[in-house]
Design a protein that fits this description.
With 134 residues, the chain is mainly beta. The chain contains 1 helix and 10 strands. The structure holds thymidine-5'-diphosphate.
Length: 134
């Protein structure tokens, strides 16, 4: 499984840093939704789902966390620790986010609005869904 991690351009100067993200230029899809996760408690693990069609970019804009990616055949662990790093997650990938630092803010850019019917929240169902695609 190929992990696609973007290193966004930082517009730094003596005042500090700035990152700008434009749909189709920096982000490979139209950004239809933005959400963020914060105040996560210790030992919390979130996610536990895949999407049938949604694409996302995850950016830990403050603090750090880990993301487990699973395509049904292979698993990869990605560290998100920099506010200028973005992890691309395509559809059909099971994800779990964990080891959040106390100050972590995980920003997510998504290619569509929230549709519960796009979620696969059962791991066995995910494996069956992947198998039916191949
Ligand atoms: P959930 O899917 O459990 O989050 P995670 O993937 O991080 O484990 O979402 C938590 C709650 O927020 C759940 O009730 C659904 C709701 N929600 C929205 O209303 N809109 C959204 O865009 C998202 C991502 C979640």
């Amino acid at each position: 499984m190929q992990v696609i991690k973007y290193s966004f351009q930082q517009h730094g100067d003596t005042r500090g840093q700035l990152v700008s993200l434009e749909e189709f230029n920096d982000i490979p899809f139209r950004i239809k939704r933005v959400y963020y996760v914060y105040d996560t408690l210790p030992n919390v693990r979130r996610g536990f789902h895949a999407h049938k069609s949604l694409e996302q970019i995850m950016i830990c804009i403050h603090g750090k966390c880990k993301v487990l990616l699973d395509n049904g055949l292979e698993k990869k662990i990605v560290y998100l620790e920099k506010p200028y790093e973005g992890l691309y997650i395509s559809n059909n990938i099971w994800r779990e986010m964990y080891d959040f630092s106390e100050d972590a803010v995980l920003l997510v850019l998504a290619s569509d609005l929230y549709h519960e019917e796009d979620y696969i929240r059962d791991y066995d169902e995910f494996l069956k869904f992947i198998a039916s695609k191949n």
